[in-house]
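ugh finaly. both done.
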Amino acid sequence: MKNTTIYKSFMLAVSLGFVLMGCGGNEKQAVSTAEAVPVTVADVDTGDSSTILAGSGQITAVNSTSLSTRMMGYVESLPVKIGQKVRKGDLLISINNVDLRAKKAQVEASIMEATAAFNNAKKDYERFQNLFNETSASQKELDDMTSRYEMAKARLEAANQMKNEVNSQFAYANIRAPFNGVVTNTYIDEGDMANPGVPLVSVEAPGKFEVVAKVAENNISSIKEGTKAQIQVKAIDTILTGKVSELSASAQNTGGQYLMKVLLDETEAKILSGMYATVRLETDQNGNGKQIVTVPSTALVHKGQLTGVYTLGQDNVALLRWLRLGENYGDEVEVLSGLSKGDQYIVSAEGKLYNGANVTIQ
């Protein structure tokens, strides 16, 4: 009986061991076959010793304008569309100007009347001047004719100036292209009401472009007009060259940052207005500058008071690394510690990441 009990206990332990081994094998298989998360990675962006990361901004055409009107009226005609090339003087938009045309007709009638009065006054003045020279007219009569002549001349001049004023208003009723370029936007349709000061159509002249960016106060002393720049345009994965063309001397109304314009050198790259660009300035030609490590702010992970980024570990495993951050430069953040040159970090993922997650690089 005792032997039978021992045998049953032994068989139960063996069976339990096989069950546990089977469960462990299944768990290991489940982990090993877990689907990897598709991710996009990037190398750590480290500025060389001769550059500083000044900031980022949008590319704009140097010669661009948004046109508006000084008068209120319905849009009669909009003969252009977005992307259309125009030449200087081409009609862009026509606003109903019935009242203006009526005023012009009144002014022209006033000019005709004033011209006739002036001609008569001029003839009388010249006749009385001859009579005065022949002592056939008194000084008072000549003075009266002179005053009449001067008054008629002044009325004619006033009528002509009124005509110039009306003609200048027609420039705001029939808006024309101020230079050769391309229509970049239209903000109104035919039949809509145009209001004074509200943009109606935008035109830009392609060819010359610039980047408008903001510079932190700790870098402003190293920058001056003419400073060379490297401009990275992410949309077309290109690095262009340029130089600082304008630099604000005050940061009072810009949140402690100084406004800077960087004029791009001529290039055959297909850049367009509105593209985002990152600006690096060559401020130290002797190689005495500091290294700057930056990452996009969208790649950061926030947990409470801690901020980190997922890096790419061995065997394509995501590893969360905590960082100490510095200043913001547009859409990038300076990393003071936690990353170094040669590291790879995860920019984006098509799934939920966690420390130790298997990933696959797209």
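ok and the 2nd:
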Amino acid sequence: MRPGAYNNIEALIEEGCPVCITFSDEQGDSSDLLYCELTQRARYGGSFIIEHQRCKPGDYILGISEISPVDYYLRSGRYKDSATAQKAVFSLPRVIKTFRSIRIEPWPQKAEKFDVLLLYLKPEKAMRIIQAYAYQSGNAIPSRSIGAASICGDCTARPLTEAIGLSYGCKGSRKHSRYDNNEVPLGISYGLLEIIEEGLSNIPQTFD
């Protein structure tokens, strides 16, 4: 199904466009920007193929590096001690797959299969994605978050194994990429898009 056929999903977007994430065997570049900054730029038309990016915890989450961010998180003051920081890192999702680069591009440019669709949504619109998912099965989304690694972890790594990743953001992504405080990021695995699209066609409108 071509991206333009997902009209119900696209209609939820109020700013920019959805972002397609593909784990690729292509040659890519090293970026001086953070992964969350790159996805935000792709939201407004930018396209990137990266092998590395500037956020070291992000490289760990994305499966680019094996260097744990425990010390980084501890120094940042996010956790009370080393054991707590270690527990937090252990709880984070990671990309576990073989790839060379990550392709990050806006929705209209991506006609073929990709891995994850990343959306920045107002809470009511994110609610409709969850309702559309539940329409088919009655199941809750299996989403978790500790307020860290939002775009790379919650919304990119998690959907690869749990279908949907909903996040409230994290300090790094909100500080550096500056998506709106009234938006929540959400990632959907490619294989779930038709189910979500069909669900959106059937569930009632919020304010009907």
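summary for the 2nd one i guess: Residues 151 and 160 are 13 Å apart (CA to CA).
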